[in-house]
Design goal:
Number of helices: 11
CATH topology of the largest domain: Quinone Oxidoreductase, Chain A, domain 1
Shape: globular
CATH class of the largest domain: Alpha Beta
CATH superfamily of the largest domain: Medium-chain alcohol dehydrogenases, catalytic domain
Helix content: 25-40%
Strand content: 25-35%
Distance between the termini: 27 Å
CATH architecture of the largest domain: Alpha-Beta Complex
Number of domains: 2
Number of strands: 17
Radius of gyration: 20 Å
Bound molecules: NADP nicotinamide-adenine-dinucleotide phosphate, zinc ion
Amino acid sequence: MKAVVLYEQGGVEKLVYADYPNPEITVSEVLVQVEACALNRLDLKARQDRPEVDPFPHILGSDIAGIVVEVGAKVKQISVGNRVVLSPNISCGQCSDCVSGYENLCNRQKLIGFQTNGGYAEYVAVPSVNAVPIADDLDFSAAAAIPIAYLTAWHMLVTRARIQPGEDVLVLSVGSGVGSAGLQIAKLSGCRVFATASSEEKLQVARQMGADFTVNYTQTDFSQFVLDLTNGRGVDVVLEHVGQATWEQSLDSLAKNGRLVTCGVTTGNQGQIDIRKMYQKQLSLLGSALGSTPELRTVVQLANSGTLNPVVDRTLPLQQAQLAHQILEDRLNFGKICLSPTIRDSPTTV
Ligand SMILES: NC(=O)c1ccc[n+]([C@@H]2O[C@H](COP(=O)([O-])OP(=O)(O)OC[C@H]3O[C@@H](n4cnc5c(N)ncnc54)[C@H](OP(=O)(O)O)[C@@H]3O)[C@@H](O)[C@H]2O)c1
Ligand SMILES: [Zn+2]
């Protein structure tokens, strides 16, 4: 098959479009013909230097949608021809976390495309339990946009922060995969949304998608912006993923009883906290990592019914993986960038 293969880590030029042996399935796996694979910021890190990447040579890609073309002898719930999206997390299914429904806490979990070969390819083999059927009219790129960004944002806002109708939610870097998903989920939940981004173009898209207040955080202190618009109160929930560069302003944006929920450290791992402010304002700090398969099924159902419309920035042919990585690295996307082995013609520039 054709695949984008990483023979060694480094810059975008290390993504090589090449021939690669077709994957073989076990009795409990399915073979999926990839129609679309969405990129994540983690793909950039994996390409550059993350030590967990395995096997080598490696095929990246964790967010995969496609058609089942072969099923293992013991697979019952999925058939050849099913249109599916893949849950990105292969958990052990046996530990106390897995059997309690917290497979995102499993110590033995592997992320498809990171610790296994993934979806920058014509075919991928995965456990059948990872295949979630999608509606006939759900576009494959929209489906591929769902697993990591929407599952993570759902777990952050709905499961961890328990957002309520009428609450104020601040979404950082709203053009990111997680941020654009967070905006949609917060609006769907009846919240008022404040959103940040580094460009007016991204803020304009955010407003078109329903963001109530937007701020270019490279020009304005976003915590001051939030406090000014809420008469000094602050927001109930901050969706954090930028990390070190925004951490203190994010905390300063919170109202009393506010919750900060975080899933990422794009700008660095360390954050300061004024402990007195934290207890006086009764703040809650919540960590969040991916989500469970039942949560993914809920989000897919919302996309199947058209209630959620996954934001796809663009879909490029698989051969243009280098360009796709460059666009993501340059922060030019609003929502998800997808690769597709089945489309051929497309613009070759940003
Ligand atoms: N724990 C989990 O389960 C989980 C799941 C998904 C993602 N994540 C993490 O969440 C973060 C967002 O992921 P994503 O895939 O949604 O990202 P993405 O689409 O690549 O967007 C990242 C955005 O962060 C903003 N940003 C601010 N400072 C930046 C900097 N110094 N360098 C690069 N970008 C910067 C940029 O938007 P502006 O230019 O508008 O600021 C950029 O577009 C990543 O750290 C990722 O690893 C974690
Ligand atoms: Zn487990």
